[in-house]
Amino acid sequence: MTRQYTHWRKSRHSEPNGECVELGRADDGTIGIRDTKQHGTGPTLELTPTEWAAFVRKIRKHDINA
After folding, report:
1. 6, 43, 32, 23 alpha-carbon torsion, rounded to 10°
2. What is the rounded distance in angstroms from the CA atom of residue 6 to the CA atom of residue 28?
3. Start and end of every DUF397 domain (predicted)?
4. Which sign, positive or negative, has the C-alpha torsion 33, 36, 37, 40?
5. Number of CB atoms found within 10 A of residue 31's CB
6. What's the rounded Cα separation, in Å, for the pair 10 and 1?
7. What is the C-alpha to C-alpha distance for residues 30 and 19, in angstroms, rounded to an integer?
8. What are the residue ranges spanned by the domains of the chain?
9. What's the rounded mean pLDDT across residues 6-35?
């Protein structure tokens, strides 16, 4: 099944040169992550809400700018 993601937004940590990632959300709560250089045609990494929360916790734990 192909999920439809809406409300794509760029990461706040994106580079001004266009090298960034975008996040979108499906109706079932799944988080989609994609590379903006692919202009919506590349693969989308899909994470459940639980997987997303664990990912964010791990990043924040190692964020040197926090």
Report:
1. -70
2. 11
3. 7-60
4. positive
5. 20
6. 25
7. 23
8. 5-61
9. 87
What is the pTM assigned to this prediction?
0.77
* Amino acid at the residue 9: R
In this structure, what are the phi and psi dihedrals at residue 43, rounded to the nearest 5 degrees? -70, 155
How high is the pLDDT of residue 31?
96
Helix (H, G, I), strand (E, B) or coil at 63: coil
pLDDT over 70 for what percent of the chain? 92
Q: Exposure string (b/e) for 51-61, b if CB count within 10 Å is 16 or more?
A: ebeeeeeeeee
What is the pLDDT, as a whole number, of residue 20? 87
**Helix or strand run (H / E) with residue 31:** strand 31-35
